[in-house]
């Protein structure tokens, strides 16, 4: 049950959204935006990091682990990181609606699931890449995720290899120890810096450099929607501790 103060905070945020000048709202989201679509997050009690694997999940999604143990990486990646049948939830749909109406200028996301695009959002800045894109590490040939899975199924070592040159095909996702894409970061900084309203949702703001991008915000209202406290709560005008879909699903 949502308490009276939370209800008032939700109404205040919705009022800010309704009053926001065209193109002056930016949304910054993390794994908690997709949990209502059935995709587990990382740091909650039942998230990926709480589950037991031969190696810590943080290690298994690092570049050094990918290079040293590609088969184990793909076992984990395909089992735990892919949710290809997931559907957008109320939050994804509302953000797409706000973009169509002209209020929202950009979605900046740490997620790799592609659900914002599936809901209809167009200007989505994917800081950590996307599971839907894959590429050969040698010749650069592109592959869909379905093609990646087919190559893995055909491979005797369980690792997808390029049908053109034989090199490993890597998901276009940013692993630990890898840099973010410069162009995506620049676009995110530009969007956040020009926003009047920044809504941060579903993220612990613990992963850098992505979390540091919000330092570029100097607009009127900063709202954080997250079920647990974040290091930036003291700087926010509103902190709403509930599901993202409950707040934006109107």
UniProtKB/TrEMBL annotation:
Names of the cofactor(s): Zn(2+)
Record EC number: 2.3.1.286
UniProt-listed InterPro entries: DHS-like_NAD/FAD-binding_dom, NAD-dep_sirtuin_deacylases, Sirtuin, Sirtuin_cat_small_dom_sf, Sirtuin_class_U, Ssirtuin_cat_dom
Location, primary (coarse class): cytoplasm
Subcellular location per the Swiss-Prot or TrEMBL entry: Cytoplasm
Binding residue positions for nicotinamide: 42, 112-113
Catalytic activity, reaction form: N(6)-acetyl-L-lysyl-[protein] + NAD(+) + H2O = 2''-O-acetyl-ADP-D-ribose + nicotinamide + L-lysyl-[protein]
One Pfam family this sequence matches: SIR2
Active site: 128
GO CC aspect terms: cytoplasm
Protein name: NAD-dependent protein deacetylase
Annotated organism of origin: Adlercreutzia hattorii
């Amino acid at each position: 049950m949502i308490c009276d103060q939370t209800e008032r905070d939700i109404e205040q945020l919705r009022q800010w959204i309704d009053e926001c000048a065209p193109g002056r709202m930016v949304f910054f989201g993390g794994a908690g935006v997709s949990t209502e679509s059935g995709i587990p997050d990382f740091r909650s009690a039942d998230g990926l990091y709480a589950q037991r694997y031969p190696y810590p999940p943080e290690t298994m999604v690092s570049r050094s682990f990918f290079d040293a143990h590609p088969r184990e990486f793909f076992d984990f990646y395909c089992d735990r990181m892919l949710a290809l049948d997931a559907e957008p939830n109320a939050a994804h749909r509302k953000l797409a609606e706000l973009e169509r109406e002209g209020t929202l200028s950009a979605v900046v996301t740490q997620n790799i699931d592609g659900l914002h695009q599936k809901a209809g959002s167009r200007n989505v800045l994917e800081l950590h890449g996307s599971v839907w894109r894959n590429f050969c590490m040698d010749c650069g040939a592109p592959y869909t995720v379905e093609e990646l899975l087919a190559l893995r199924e055909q491979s005797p070592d369980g690792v997808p290899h390029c049908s053109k040159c034989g090199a490993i095909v890597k998901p276009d996702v940013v692993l630990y120890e890898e840099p973010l894409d410069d162009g995506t970061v620049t676009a995110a900084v530009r969007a956040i810096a020009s926003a009047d309203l920044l809504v941060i949702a579903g993220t612990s703001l613990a992963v850098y450099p992505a979390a540091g991008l919000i330092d570029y915000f100097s607009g009127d209202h900063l709202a954080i929607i997250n079920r647990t406290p974040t290091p930036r709560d003291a700087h926010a005008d509103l902190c709403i501790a509930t599901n993202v879909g409950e707040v934006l699903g109107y």
